[in-house]
Amino acid sequence: MAVGQVRYSIPEEMVIESASPGARYSLESASDPDVAMNTIQTYKLNPSDNFKLNVDGRKIPELVLEKPLDREKMPVHNLILTAVDGGDPVRSGTSEITVIVLDINDNAPQFEKQVYETNVSEKATPGTEILHVKATDADEGVNGEIEYFFAEQTSDLILSLFAIESSTGTIVVRGNLDHETNSLHRFDITAKDKGNPQLDGHCGIEIKILDINDNNPEIIVTSLTSPVPEDSAVGTVIALISAKDPDSGDNGKVLLTLSPKSLFKLNPSLNGMPINYTSSTKFR
Ligand SMILES: [Ca+2]
Ligand SMILES: [Ca+2]
Ligand SMILES: [Ca+2]
Ligand SMILES: [Ca+2]
């Protein structure tokens, strides 16, 4: 009885092509020099989820793919074909069949998170690393090699402010960030494998730009009575002023003060700060 080893390389199933179910792989028939009942009567295959055995009229066994192969689940299938003769005593021989499943690019890169969020100071300089994104791809070789890019349709503003290292997924500052102009940036990153055809995956990025106190307060005089008549009564409103500071929180709060020797007083008002003339001393 033949004892041998057979090796097959079969692509994992993708669509209705390559090794789709029903594909047949002819196995050399085992040879048995005996004749009649003593020659090979049956073949058996050890249990397999993906293959079954078919023996045609000429008693040539063939391996039939019953279920798609998935290299990512099982890259190698070891099958044992047993040939049994009809003699007495029964004799049998086995062939080891090794099926190597060839990779097809059937997995898209997948990011570890759907959305990555982080904060960066508006004073961060170009080259500062902000964030790492990471995607994985279950395929083999180039089918599983990933590169990172900004998604198509990413705005010119984003492209001017941030950069991504395609091989590492590191996002760095590229331009000058400004909390006062944009305190939050949202964009998408695409991971592409190098298979043919190429598959891709996406994730979202949200970068908050943290404020620093980089703006001086500005005083705005909205109305002013000038000159002021010297007999103005104490309490006369002579100017409405306001102040603004585009920074956020305490960085944008403004405290207005007048020099202590001033003849004027600051009073809060709804729409600005009226300066009241409060001194009884007339001024010239
Ligand atoms: Ca694959
Ligand atoms: Ca892939
Ligand atoms: Ca400020
Ligand atoms: Ca600021």
Give an overview of the whole structure.
The protein is mainly beta. The chain folds into 3 domains: 99 residues, Cadherins (Immunoglobulin-like, Sandwich), CATH 2.60.40.60; 101 residues, Cadherins (Immunoglobulin-like, Sandwich); 60 residues, Cadherins (Immunoglobulin-like, Sandwich), CATH 2.60.40.60. It contains 1 helix and 20 strands. The strands form 6 sheets. A 4-stranded mixed β-sheet has the order 1-7-6-3, with no helix packed on it. The radius of gyration is 40 Å and the shape is rod-shaped. The C terminus is likely disordered. InterPro entries: Cadherin-like_dom, Cadherin-like_sf, Cadherin_CS, Protocadherin/Cadherin-CA. Keywords: Calcium, Cell adhesion, Cell membrane, Glycoprotein, Membrane, Repeat, Signal, Transmembrane, Transmembrane helix. Pfam families: Cadherin (PF00028).
Bound molecules: calcium ion
Strand order of the largest sheet: 1-7-6-3
Shape: rod-shaped
Under the CATH scheme, the architecture of the largest domain is Sandwich
Count of separate DSSP helical elements = 1
Distance from N terminus to C terminus (CA atoms, Å) equals: 127 Å
pLDDT average, as an integer? 85
Kindly report the name of the CATH homologous superfamily of the largest domain.
Answer: Cadherins
Radius of gyration: 40 Å
CATH topology of the largest domain: Immunoglobulin-like
The number of E-state strands comes to 20
How are the SSEs placed, and which strands pair?
Elements (H helix, E strand, L loop, with lengths): L3 E8 L12 E3 L13 E6 L5 E5 L5 E5 L10 E10 L6 E11 L7 E2 L3 E7 L7 E4 L2 E2 L9 E5 L5 H6 E3 L5 E4 L10 E10 L6 E11 L7 E7 L11 E9 L19 E3 L6 E5 L7
Parallel strand pairs: 1-7, 9-16
Antiparallel strand pairs: 2-5, 3-6, 4-5, 6-7, 8-11, 10-14, 12-15, 13-14, 15-16, 17-18, 18-20, 19-20
The chain binds calcium ion (CA) (4 copies).
The site of one calcium ion (CA) has 8 residues, from loops.
Keywords: Calcium, Cell adhesion, Cell membrane, Glycoprotein, Membrane, Repeat, Signal, Transmembrane, Transmembrane helix
GO biological process, one term: anatomical structure morphogenesis
Protein name: Cadherin domain-containing protein
